[in-house]
Amino acid sequence: MSAASVVRATTAPVVVHSARVVVPMTAPPIADGAVAVQDGRILHVGDRSWVVDQLDSVGRPWSERRWRGALLPGLVNAHTHLQYTGMSGVGQRQYAGFEAWAAAFNEDYALPHDWRAEASAGAVASLAAGVTSVADVVTDIEAADVLEQHGLGGIAYWEVMDWENAAWESRGRDQVLDELARIPTTPGAGLSPHAPYSLDVAPLLELPDIVRQRGLRLHLHLGEAAFEGERIALGPVPGLEGVDGVARSADWHTADWHLANVPSFRAMRALGFGASATAFVDRLGVLGPDCHIAHGVYVTASDRALLRARGTTVALCPRSNAVIGLDPPPVADYLREGSPIAVGTDSLSSSPSLDPMADVTALHRIARAQGYGHRDLHERLLAAVTLGGAHAMGTAVGPDRVGHLAVGARADLAVFDVDARTVPDALAELVEDGAGRAVATVVRGAVRATDGVVHPTAGAVPPTAAHPMHPAPTRPLEER
Length: 480
Known about the structure:
alpha/beta; eight-stranded parallel beta sheet; about 35% helix
């Protein structure tokens, strides 16, 4: 560390953010807790009395923000398309299935849109909801720099779709490489192969290599549509009798379809193979710890085991699934089996809002309906919408880590207005009725939103003034 950085670290002001309940995610929840922040990083986390004693013991000046309710790590929206914020008219309706929704989406998408302005509106709505990091799938280049523009963390994933094998070989690869070079690397960049059914085998084989050669991340839609699920074939496949496993055993529908040199997932299905989309992309080498998927609705126990084996997180988007007319995700199975999960809102083209806490509440309801009765449900769903999303994007570790409140982590915080006086009751209130309760969002130590109002520049809302060694007086929580 240089001398200049040492001076900066010791002279930057310290702000103590305290609340009735602090939920670190990688440590037990704390009643009457506090997080000390300096220079955009977390300096201390613990009981408020202990945190201020630590500061006073070394003569470090500090000021305090006493928040009402519960203080969490900033929320992580692990799957959305911010540029579709202007397509909310599509997401406010109800559909009979994926095809009906896709028709409405395509009709609206074809209309004139200012993708950058609409993505910017989505970023503002995200900050107001307590979101500090976003997995943003970008389809039009105008929206590529919105995370950077608004100081949000996360990754902008450039979406790749509708490439057949021949076109990919002739011009697709070069086009995608050129487009990827235009995606800002701040806060992060990646590629999103749209889905197994919208890309042929050649691009699905190469896109993971392109990403991994550059140390970037992958994110794709998987198991969202019912036709991606495993199927039982109706009979032998003409012309493929010589392929090992085909028409020779009761389970030939899941046999080694790759030996038939199928050009795409759709062609595989047309030939009669019933392997799931998850098994399909796994055989192509798409899955891995540097990849996370969205939806994961139509997956079998074997599919979920594959995701766990590859270290691939699934971002669950239950409200989007409901709007489109899909089945609920098997959240109880994911939880019982120990699968890594995160939470996504999807976009306003298929969801009522960009508030991930509404999806947490939906997941709680679905898990209970599916028979999940363990007492850890509240904590696990809160972990999914924070640490789980960070883990999905690879940002839960490293020098700029997020998703949990720990010393040295980036000071991304979210505060929610809850009335409960005990830690268990506060967690229950957050999970079962947390939508619309964000009262503050802090990004890199700067208060970026309060009570639904987003402040356009870092530091627009300065900390409460205080004596150099003592906290400023605050009103009782009930009066705030």
